[in-house]
Write a structure and sequence with these properties.
The chain is mostly beta strands. The protein has a single domain (about 20-200), classed as Porin (Beta Barrel), CATH 2.40.160.20. About 10% of the residues lie in helices and about 60% in strands. It has helices spanning about 1-15, 85-90, and strands at about 25-35, 45-60, 65-80, 105, 105-120, 125-140, 150-165, 170-180, 190-205. An 8-stranded antiparallel beta barrel has the order 1-2-3-5-6-7-8-9. Strand 5 (about 105-120) and strand 6 (about 125-140) form a beta hairpin. The longest helix has 14 residues, at about 1-15. The two termini are about 35 Å apart. The model is unreliable at about 1-15 (pLDDT under 50).
């Protein structure tokens, strides 16, 4: 009886982890696109891999919700282009014929971001998040033609779950819709969309 009561108290204490105003988040994450939809962008058959470091600051709370401002440094933003047959069809350039999928490396920064954690006093915290920023690639993307650009803007939104552990540490599993384009800075601006599944780890101070 006493042992059972102690176990209940322990679980409750573990679940009671309030995300308070003024807390800082230090984290890392990595993701891979499961699909290449065309909700905004028009290019298809691309894959996207990205990984980043996050700093977040909880600037307010309201009941069970925590409001956080985030900044993401993205040292790896890798676009995997389609096979050469598709690139020939997109560009009209026969030099791509016979080319296999190639990876275009890039890096970026998302200085504007917001995350909303719900059930902030619990171990399992659903969240909604959105960010905006830019990426610079080694080659023009998403179509390798002179009129395309190496510098592009990005924005994403999505949600997931943060699972809190002891010591104010949390694992993250999430999904986000990611859009990349040059915002009409060039006459060629097909843009591309990706559906990214990602995971991460954070420490809150």
């Amino acid at each position: 009886m006493i042992a059972a009561f102690t176990a209940v108290i322990s679980v409750k204490a573990q679940d009671d982890k309030p995300l308070t105003s003024g807390a800082s988040e230090f984290g890392a994450w990595a993701g891979y696109s499961l699909a290449n939809p065309t909700l905004i962008g028009t290019t298809t058959n691309r894959r996207f891999i990205n990984a980043g470091l996050r700093y977040g600051f909880v600037f307010g709370t309201w009941r069970g919700v925590a409001f956080e401002y985030t900044v993401d440094l993205v040292p790896a933003a890798i676009l995997i282009q389609p096979p050469g047959t598709q690139l020939v069809a997109e560009t009209g350039d026969r030099r791509f014929a016979g080319q296999v999928r190639t990876a275009v490396y890039g890096a970026g920064l998302s200085p504007i971001g917001f995350k909303f954690n719900f059930r902030r006093r619990r171990m399992w915290q659903p969240f909604f998040a959105a960010t905006a920023g830019f990426v610079y690639s080694a080659e023009a993307i998403p179509i390798p033609v002179p009129e395309a650009t190496r510098f592009n803007f990005t924005f994403d939104f999505g949600g997931g779950l943060q699972i809190w552990r002891s010591g104010r540490k949390a694992f993250t599993v999430g999904y986000k819709f990611d859009h990349i384009s040059n915002a009409e800075r060039s006459r060629v601006n097909p843009g591309f969309d990706t559906a990214v599944l990602y995971t991460g780890f954070s420490v809150f101070k």
